[in-house]
Write a sequence for this structure.
């Protein structure tokens, strides 16, 4: 009786409790797989570093986050977090502002579109990591080059995305505004920008993963602190007991930012968020 | 039914994670072995010896097979060895103590191939005395032998690491980094040293010839694997010294070998010979035996383990540098006798010297 609507797989929904259980299952499965693997290796060699036990990981978290470092006296996890987040924040902010200004200009003004869009399309395809030596020699090895790498990595994509979103606005809106006497500036500021703000948040959410990637790459190359710096430094000694909590922490931060941006979007631009199927 | 299949998948996944690495390191008699090596002047002979069939020839003699695998990333090769995927690896004395030995993998130095005699250096921009490094930012690969060299350089002028600041810099980007204005001091190794010294204003103020014998390039193997399979050690040592006798000879064959090794490491015969000049290769096994059995090795390992201990690299919460024992050919032990994880062995090199392989 496969014709009955209720029996088709696509129409069967789990209840709220079962839904939550299903969401947790892959995580639980992953943890179990890890702990069994870890135990097999530790039985073979109690000092194995590749898959440390949960106890060893807890010790490492205690050491990195809540005890001052033996040599420098600072709390390494927090120091690294502050260093990384300031670089990430500066890079993402700059890229967003640049992406918004250039993207709206390219999407709205034909002269800007003809001048810039081919260049941005080509520029966006340059792999930033391949031209690192040029970035270093131009911007030095300090904080600036790390921020520039993030901007270089995500701004071209954000610009192109915003330009496309602007060109998707119904042309009736622009025509209507003109009949009401609006100037180019008025249209950009009062018609386009307010509709772009929630879409900029979308672009930002999608770019954050890449921004983290570029941040960690920059910190691996030359740094004195930062989450990526610590991971690459300790990789030399296969200290997975520290690296795994760092990876978990980075993932947690990234997921939190994504969640916060989504909530902010819903709160600040309810008209936009309400059009979506809830995720 | 569902929960059963889930359990099965879990067990299969975790077993594969756990066993993937462990198989090679399992101690038992076996006939197939794997050696990991990475591009460096003192280890290029392995790549050439494998290409020329010298490794196979010696392996055949002992009825075993040895797979020689080149790594582009030095640290990754040591990590793979430590995780159990390889039976042997090429590395420095310091990294072997800090990575496999601290990681609980009992490791034996089978061949002391050479020691760095100028290949690692501290270079200053627009300054020509070692004292000038005080107060500067120093770019180097943190926790590497470069870092050790810097610590020894500072000790020699009664200074310590707190008198400078270290900036961790990837070796791949060291030359580009040196071109920037904010970089004024670097510690690195050849061929980067030679490249940087060509820049006007660059001066070498301290190098590994100031601490001769302390940075050793070793071929090391898993201790249990070696104990159960002496043939593996014999074949490696035999192949190594046959290669040495060819490459270090002043013959057309020697020149051809060094040309091939130079090209494989991204330079040419002249470039490779220049690097060899600052590398004290042991051409004769008897010289390597004399070096390995001297008390100097113990003095060096004392300095090395103190360096590692002070930086927390002898394990979490290690309360003393004695936590990992280091064994020497005369039977003496530095550190915990019940936990010897790093051993210097001269037996196999002696067999090569005596011609009994």
């Amino acid at each position: 009786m496969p014709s009955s609507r209720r029996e088709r797989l696509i129409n069967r929904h789990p209840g709220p409790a079962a839904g939550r259980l299903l969401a947790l299952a892959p995580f639980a499965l992953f943890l179990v797989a890890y702990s069994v693997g870890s135990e097999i290796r530790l039985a073979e060699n109690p000092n194995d570093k590749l898959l440390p036990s949960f106890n060893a990981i807890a010790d490492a978290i205690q050491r990195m986050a809540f005890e001052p470092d033996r040599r420098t006296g600072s709390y390494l996890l927090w120091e690294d977090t502050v260093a990384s987040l300031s670089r990430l924040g500066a890079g993402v902010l700059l890229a967003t502002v640049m992406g918004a200004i250039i993207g709206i200009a390219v999407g709205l003004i034909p002269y800007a579109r003809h001048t810039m869009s081919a260049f941005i399309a080509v520029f966006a395809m340059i792999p930033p990591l391949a031209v690192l030596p040029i970035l270093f020699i131009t911007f030095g090895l300090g904080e600036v080059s790390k921020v520039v790498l993030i901007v270089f990595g995500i701004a071209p994509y954000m610009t192109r995305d915003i330009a496309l979103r602007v060109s998707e606005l119904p042309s009736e809106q622009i025509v209507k505004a003109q009949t009401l006497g609006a100037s180019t500036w008025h249209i950009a500021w009062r018609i386009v920008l307010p509709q772009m703000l929630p879409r900029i948040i979308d672009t930002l959410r999608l770019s954050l993963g890449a921004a983290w990637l570029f941040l960690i790459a920059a910190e691996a190359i030359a740094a004195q602190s930062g989450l990526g710096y610590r991971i690459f430094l300790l990789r030399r000694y296969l200290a997975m007991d520290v690296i795994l909590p760092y990876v978990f922490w980075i993932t947690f931060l990234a997921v939190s930012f994504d969640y916060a941006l989504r909530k902010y979007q819903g709160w600040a631009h309810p008209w936009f968020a309400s059009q979506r199927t809830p995720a | 039914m569902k929960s059963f299949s889930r359990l099965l998948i879990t067990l299969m996944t975790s077993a594969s994670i756990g066993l993937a690495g462990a198989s090679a390191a399992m101690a038992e008699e076996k006939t197939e072995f794997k050696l990991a090596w990475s591009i460096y002047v003192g280890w290029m002979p392995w790549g050439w010896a494998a290409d020329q069939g010298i490794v196979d020839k010696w392996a055949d003699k002992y009825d075993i097979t040895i797979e020689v695998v080149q790594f582009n990333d030095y640290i990754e090769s040591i990590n793979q060895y430590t995780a159990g995927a390889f039976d042997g690896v090429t590395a420095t004395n310091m990294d072997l103590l800090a990575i496999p030995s601290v990681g609980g993998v009992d490791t034996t130095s089978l061949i002391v191939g050479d020691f760095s005699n100028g290949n690692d250096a501290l270079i200053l921009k627009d300054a020509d005395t070692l004292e000038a490094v005080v107060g500067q930012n120093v770019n180097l690969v943190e926790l590497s032998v470069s870092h050790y060299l810097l610590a020894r350089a500072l000790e020699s002028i009664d200074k310590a690491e707190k008198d400078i600041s270290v900036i961790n810099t990837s070796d791949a980007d060291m030359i580009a980094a040196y071109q920037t204005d904010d970089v004024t001091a670097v510690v690195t190794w050849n061929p980067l040293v030679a490249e940087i010294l060509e820049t006007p204003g660059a001066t070498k103020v301290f190098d590994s010839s100031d601490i001769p014998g302390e940075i050793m390039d070793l071929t090391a193997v898993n201790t249990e694997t070696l104990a159960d399979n002496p043939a593996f050690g014999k074949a490696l040592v035999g192949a190594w010294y046959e290669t040495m006798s060819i490459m270090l000879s002043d013959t057309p064959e020697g020149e051809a070998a060094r040309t091939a090794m130079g090209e494989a490491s991204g330079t040419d015969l002249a470039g490779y010979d220049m690097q060899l000049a600052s590398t004290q290769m042991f051409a004769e096994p008897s010289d390597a035996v004399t070096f390995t059995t001297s008390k100097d090795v113990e003095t060096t390992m004392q300095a090395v383990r103190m360096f590692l201990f002070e930086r927390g690299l002898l394990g979490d919460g290690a309360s003393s540098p004695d936590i990992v024992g280091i064994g020497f050919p005369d039977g003496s032990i530095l550190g915990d006798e019940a936990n010897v994880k790093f051993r210097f062995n001269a037996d196999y090199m002696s067999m090569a010297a005596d011609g009994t392989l």
About this structure: Chain B has two domains: 2-117+214-354, 120-210. The two ends of chain B are 60 Å apart (CA to CA).
